[in-house]
């Protein structure tokens, strides 16, 4: 018996148009320019749906962590202020159960993803970027549900990964489905996918401005698609409002008062050093992840092996998480813990050094082997650990006059921004996570120093180097949509013979002399290119000479000269 659904007609939305009253609220597929007014409703809708997806991901992850990691394994990781109040690490009462729970969760999550939507494996942001470039309206709706459940199982059981990858892929798939259902063109579908990605990441991190900037930066390595920014801002604010209505509007890492008199000369020197160290950490993080990921893709090909590889890697991650804090789960609670002066001062230097290295190894094993999770957030955790280490070393030299908070925040931005090719969006997002815009200046210094170290290293290999030529040529559409002028793409050329004569402004041209005659033969004027036919009985004719093929015979009477 066949279980395939039989269709009686085409599924193309272009053949099933929306009602006229609804279609007016969406961009017209045949329009060459999309005014912002036609994107208000789609952007708000995509942002709201992405916000609901972030709410579901956050709730399922919290439920999975409480059920699997805390109740069964007895391990209570750090928790952020946004997760119900900051909580410090509580060691496991049953340490032997932690690796088993992590492996079991990875096994279930990977089997679920391979069965229903194999594209939900691994990190989701790169998949969303690839879809935006190649098939923006082709993401399947089931990807959202599969990615949601698989990520909650993987991270909730102790796998090392981030929430932004699942949030990005889930919300981008929402945008792709809405674009397909409303019959948007390819260019419009790409915009819908990108603003969905931006709103999902902005909602899960409670950073709408950073999410919108990230959507404009993330598709290309050397350029920024500023045309999507107004629409991404609308969608990101919508998603942020929906997420905040469910879980509050407090910053992810809480609000922190100033710790110290402020920045001095020693602080800026140490901030620059922090940027350099974070650049090295970013390169190491990217290299370790792709070393595991590419080796797994090359050697693990059968379905049973693809399911077993993340489970085997989760066993190692579980053991590593018992030794170093912040490895299990997202690690976002550790980032907030590292902003506390007393806690950082009480940790051994070797432990501070081990935190970023262990998070690099744990994320490479979890996500690189095919587990479902993000690689965006863990890179911020690596940067936070590197910044705390730099502060601790500088404290021994009496360099910093402030606490570790500025170094943790600029470390987050400097480690991730350059390798993600989104320095501005990541920097703004990091400051939004602590609600302190005064760190933008030090953050820019650290990001610039880190960029000098990372070079052309990229965390997302689906990014294009620059906007394609055909996409760059559409840049005038934004200007035309703002000015209200129409744009006619690819005008059909009119043959020169069919064009009406165009008269130049000014006085009428003087009549040209007629061809001179010599011994009854018409002589053509030099340099003539037109071909009027002379009538022997018409009298004097002004104009250019007749070509030789059309000249009258020598027996015809010559025209009288003027």
TrEMBL record:
PANTHER family per the UniProt record, alphabetical: CHLORIDE CHANNEL PROTEIN CLC-E
Membrane-crossing residue ranges in chain numbering: 39-61, 96-117, 233-253, 265-285, 305-331, 343-362, 374-393, 405-427, 439-459
Annotated spans, Disordered: 461-562
Start-end of Pro residues biased regions: 503-514
Descriptive protein name: Chloride channel protein
Keywords, comma-separated and alphabetical: Chloride, Chloride channel, Ion channel, Ion transport, Membrane, Transmembrane, Transmembrane helix, Transport
Membrane-related topology note: Multi-pass membrane protein
Compositionally biased region (Basic and acidic residues): 463-472
Subcellular location(s) of the protein: Membrane
Domain of life: Bacteria
